[in-house]
Amino acid sequence: MGGHADGRLLVADSCLLRDGRMRGHERHRERFLRACADCEGAKGPPLRRLVEFWQDVTAALPRVGDWFSRAELNSGSQQLRLRLRPAQPLAQDVRVWATGQPDPRTLPRRKGPDLPALARLRKRAVAHGADEAFLVAPTGLVLEAATASLVWWEGDVLCLPPPQLPVLAGVTIGLVQERARQSGVRVAHRERTLAELDGREVWVVNALHGIRPVTAWLGRSMNAGHAVRAPEWRAWLDEMMEPLPQAH
Length: 248
What we know:
It contains five helices and 13 strands. It is α+β, with helices and mostly antiparallel strands and 248 residues long. It folds into two domains: 9-86, D-amino Acid Aminotransferase, Chain A, domain 1, CATH 3.30.470; 94-238, D-amino Acid Aminotransferase, subunit A, domain 2 (D-amino Acid Aminotransferase, Chain A, domain 2), CATH 3.20.10. Strands 7-6-5-12-11-8-9-10 form an eight-stranded mixed sheet. A three-stranded antiparallel sheet has the order 1-3-4, covered by helices on one side. A two-stranded antiparallel ribbon has the order 2-13. It is globular, with a radius of gyration of 18 Å. It starts with 8 loop residues before the first strand and ends in a 5-residue tail after the last strand.
């Protein structure tokens, strides 16, 4: 299932795997299948082939060790591929390059085609001493991070950018929203500029690191809010790791 992939990356879906356990296996499956079916200008593989590929992926994933797997669809011969990468050490917090970056993506609602551009953007953030960079719309509204979703707290309200903005439907952020609603926490979609996050508890959320509170803003005079809620929510998210389904 490995080997060299030819053509352009059309779809990618990444998952953290720890000793045969992961979060949101079925959600990742559905997002990958939906993204493959929605490829513009290219006839994706038939659904049966996609379902069989995901079954093969599930069977092939190692049950020992920490891994960051990625299922891919490439344009060359509609090639489906599984990449297995050792998981990097998980970070507990994040420093953000606070000079909001213009969104370089051409297909912001599908993970895959824009990964090289986002990697270059994050590399620039690292060069400035940060771990992440935030993307902003032409209007100045904050969208998400280069490799993660964005949420913040306004009082007791968990906030995130409105879905009509060009943001990726993250699997992990979906789990966070679901937990909030089940526990009676109000969830709101609000338009905010980067400056309006000053002093707030802000999280970046993805499949690899889970929930990371912003502990420093670099390149701009902004204060990071105290990560009051993050420890409890991180512990909950760790408990969401479930054994992989048995191969059929």
